[in-house]
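Lecture notes, unit on protein representations.

Consider one protein chain, 382 amino acids long.
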Amino acid sequence: MTKLYNLLFIVTIISCDPKNVTNEINAYTFETLKIPIEENFVPSITRNQYIDSDSGEYLALYSKTSQSLEFFNLDTKQATKSIKINREGPNGVGSFNGFTIASLDCLLLASIPPKIQVLDFNGNKKRSIPVTDPKNKVNWLGSTNLVPFLFKGDTLFGSQPFFSDIFKTSKGDAKQSTPFFQLNLSLGQPEVEWLEISRPEDEWDKGKKDPNLSWADRYDSIIVSPLSDHRLWIISKNKGKLLGYKEARSSHLNQFNILKDYPVGDQGMIKALEAGRYEILLNDHFRDVFYRFFFAGIELESYILTPRELFTNKPRVGVLILNKDLDVIGEHVFEDHSIENWNSFVGRKGLYVSTNNPNRDDFDENFLRYDIIRFEGLEYED
């Protein structure tokens, strides 16, 4: 791994050409997964978690209506377990932004006000750990598909990339912000330590951009994928330091939305749709590659849907495939409205993308439905 860090850092420092040569990669649907769900199950698509265990492959999703975390067996296509999440009472967690299953009897929730709630699989709250920062106000905490909690042993890594008011945030304030923290869950009273990792000094040279980001890990490395920057950040968990940057550019993203004034009406959504951005970053440890999703910019006149309908379910979703050294293998753009935003995960069979996009003619709320996508040139078990 040390050799990999050094290689990435050297490539970042000495590279003179900021452009990647990107080719379209062939993709095909290997299989379709359909799981019937109860009428009172309405999944929160901002977070899912794939579990590969001795007893099989499972998918965990939170239901907003039943307020429970549901586990589905991908082989039998049946619900196998349910954990009730109490909002109030002795085990109440209040509002929360996502979850992470840390072990077979440990569930972590990212709650608001910012706390890490530790529950067992019976829904009993075992601990509540505040996440604070004396320098920057922590106004958000999440463990979503964009920024799930990551781990190295008992050490948890989390992110808080936002500002209280981005339009009042100066370039200097942005450079001084520290978006990442760690804490040791094995301690009786773990203290939050904010990593001395700041945003790139030139991030806002061409104007303010969305500060949101995604991340994924591979062994000791955390790979950070800003939504409005072609560069990836490489962080060492062990050192708690930034090792360098590596550009991973999609040919379908030529500009990013510049934030100048408070949006009026639909103008903010329209500008964001026209520009496009990067999205979820997933590590596929079965094939040792990364998937960097993106929303390609569109021309609104080409669609009959309203800006709000298009913004809620982006029509043009693509994925950039990167090897373990973060070099671009290729990219693929799905057909318009063919997949659902954010609801994707990696399994043994391939990349699972949800096809339950409400803008599809065959949308069916009675099923969880995923296409298992495979890409030419990658190796699969069967």
